[in-house]
Amino acid sequence: MDSIKVFMLGWEFPPFISGGLGTACYGLTKAMDQLGIQVTFVLPRMVESTYATHVKLLTPESQMPMSTLKLSELQNVVFRTINSPLQPYLTPDSYQHRIEESLRQKRSGNVSSTSQCSGQLDYNSDMFNEVHRYASAAVGLAGNEQYDIVHAHDWMTYPAGIAVSAMSEKPLIVHVHSTEFDRSGENVNQMIYDIEREGMERADKVIAVSHFTRNIIISRYGISGEKVEVVYNGVERNGSDNCALPETGIDKDEKIVLFLGRITMQKGPEYFLQAARKVLDAMDNVKFVMAGSGDLIHQAVEMAAELGIGHKVLFTGFLRGEDVRKIYKMADVYVMPSVSEPFGIAPLEALDNDVPVIISKQSGVSEVLMHALKVDFWDVNEIANKIVAVLRYPPLEMMLRNQGNFEVRKLRWKDSAQRCAKIYEETLKQFEKCIS
Length: 436
What we know:
- By secondary structure, the chain is an alpha/beta fold.
- The chain is built from 15 helices and 15 strands.
- β8, α8 and β9 (228-230) form a beta-alpha-beta unit.
- The longest helix has 23 residues, at 413-435.
- It is globular and about 70 Å long.
- It starts with a strand and ends with a helix.
């Protein structure tokens, strides 16, 4: 078969990322590029060219590149952008707040470049209308592209994927990085759930990032197991180890326990803090770092104060790029107490930076990591016991670090891309049979 051409719909891409989805899209797309797969990647925003260091950006209105930089890195990938305020991890309430805040800034003449590159937010303030407006724009853009298959990442792009697939009569792959049950527990937003279910039902194949997620897709969305394939995420090898650590107010003899992720219900920040309280009852020379942002950040700060450990917990806010590597290099152990984690790339990144990890059993990554300590997210006593064990017993810490680092080297984006390519080929063959 000739090189496959993919019309890919995503939410974000480095350097503008707010979570694991952007990291996953970058790793997978870069690996596909190296396999010779031709990808047209559509983003729901205008990316400022001064920050885009490794992509070619084209506006929907023109075939002329906005920026052509370091194309040697991604030879087979073209990025297209649609003016839209859609962003990953937005809820309808936070979307509405963002719209209102931007409109206030616009009326006062204080619109930031970030707001400008997000499309001025002049569109209907209802997020679901915007999702469908984005789908319509994607159809218009796709009419000028050549592709064999449509690949949509997570729920906001499913309507666009369905529409492009119907217009072009090309097969549709939907890639499930997270479900509404992961994000909201049992309090699901019915409209989001309906969009997710329709996307999975209309897709020719569904890619889940773990068997954990595959089981949710089958049991909660009623999708046939024959239709759902598992493709694990990978990790990018880190670069130089020469990281100068910034001034942090952490003493050299203090141990560092790291939480890195969105501070939301899904990630279990309250369990991290409750475990921290118990660890500090057993040993005092420990600091806890919570790196990330999210809708529970203020509650987390208040909770740390209420537990009497505010002086032992540092909140860094959202980190990106080199700052992420620096915080890993500082850490003695990484803890991911996620309530429901479809995969979880951060533990792979931690191990790749020689940091032992403690992860919840309610995660996809627990399926692929054997040399990690695993806990139920709600068992704060066990989380605390395992943190203390890693910090107090060097042989355990060394075994987890060395064996985990060796293990994570086998989880590469190239394997994920090859698995996707195989799914593309099988889907295209089956699709051609059906229409012939």
